[in-house]
Amino acid sequence: MDRVKKQAIAILGCGVVGGATAKLLTQDIDFLKKRTNLTFFLKYIIDTNFARAKELNLDSSLFKSNLDEVLEDPEVAVVVELVGGTTFAKNAALKILNAKKHLVTANKALLAMHGVELFAAARKNKVSISFEASCGGGIPIIRAIYDGLIANKQDALYGIVNGTCNYILTEMTLNGVSYKKALKEAQEKGLAEADPTLDVSGMDSAHKLAILSSITFGMQIDVDSIPVSGIDKLDLLDINSGKELGYIIKLIAMARLVDGKLAIRVAPSFIRKEHPLAWVTGSFNAISLYSHALGHSMYYGRGAGGSPTASAVVSDIISVFLGTAEKTFSTLPIWPDKTKPAPLLPDGEGKGRYYLRINAKDCAGVLSKIASVFAENDISISSVLQKELVEETAGEQITGAYVPVIIITHKVKEENMRKAIAKIDAFDFVKSKIVYIHIMDEHEEIF
Ligand code: HSE
């Protein structure tokens, strides 16, 4: 494997991650060179906000505002795209690849939406794209899958892959903090995307799931085919009721093979409090993989924030100079001509357990009517919790008093669950739409 001879690095975008990467590449450069026996150096930071130089105590002569000018420099081997978004970033990425510079990026939305086109451009120009920082922040999960686990087939992947959501849910669950306050704190900590809707809507997790599951299963996964629900509509009442029953809420990105078909989704899910994913708190991420030779393994670490993400970015930069990035890129199962579109499990065919909250009038016969709909749809109840009469709460569209009836089911076919929910929703004693949350059970190891 030949080391890359050109030695200069350019960073495009000096936000939270760009700034942290620039600091790591300047403050720790002697350590990095000694450790790798390389002589690379940061030559440019492309950003129009030159004030960042002073804020971050960086040499202002590094700053340039024009990407094209930097791409003309023959000394530049690699450009690190850290601007985020998909419009400007896509044009910039294509320019970088067409200028025959290696591309390092943390941009999961860009890869999930335009990966095929960008990978083809990289291949045509005989350069690489490295994207360890795009999933799981500082956790070297992509390397773990394609390298450490190369001898394994996987049948399931369950991940907590958004630090902002995990921070918010942890604060709500453990400290009773409101959703709004927790989101503000996550933004202040530099965890959230520039547009936090991407985090809380579950889309950021879907982008990461598309990338991770493509590599894990060697299939093309179209991000638009992933059913996604976020954490922005969750009610503290459900988080607390689940907790009473021994469950912790997490935003879970999961992909699982069921008889050769891929069941895939991002959704808030309850997991038993003893499950290792339930212990993943704050901005930490974890990815749980089920492999045929190794069995269960879990990869845990800081999933968001400047310095953790910069750790993964710099490891990718070093792989470019070592010559390993190019080699890896050419063998990753991400090429359209090497992989096929994932055969997806048809909608409604999946099976799982559910948490339901039915806001019902407090009168005789309610439970028996609900139970009869369950019986008609072959749904067996695992536990029931009925709270005392409570008054209307903010955010609930209920007039007058109601009782929250909380039900946990045994495993049911999704289609049956939907039918039962629609039927119960139509009863006149039900005062607002049923809240339902997936329950993620321990994965049944099939290997
Ligand atoms: N906004 C993302 C998160 C950053 O909170 O996980 C890391 O991709």
In total, the number of strands is 18
Strand percentage lies at 15-25%
Distance between the termini: 35 Å
Average pLDDT confidence is: 93
What gross morphology would you assign?
Answer: elongated
Bound molecules: L-homoserine
What does the model show?
With 447 residues, the chain is of the alpha/beta class. It is built from 16 helices and 18 strands. The strands form 3 sheets. Strands 7, 9, 10, 11, 12, 14, 15, 16, 17 and 18 form a 10-stranded mixed β-sheet that branches. Strands 3-2-1-4-5-6 form a 6-stranded parallel β-sheet, with helices on both faces. Strands 8-13 form a two-stranded parallel ribbon. Strand 9 (247-258) and strand 10 form a beta hairpin. Helix 5 (88-98) packs parallel to helix 6 (108-124) and helix 15 (366-376) packs antiparallel against helix 16 (414-425). The radius of gyration is 24 Å and the shape is elongated. The two termini are 35 Å apart. The relative contact order is 0.13. The model has no long low-confidence stretch (mean pLDDT 93). The chain binds L-homoserine. L-homoserine (HSE) binds at residues 137, 162-164, 191-193, 199, 204, 303-304. L-homoserine (HSE) is lined by residues 137, 162-164, 191-193, 199, 204, 303-304.
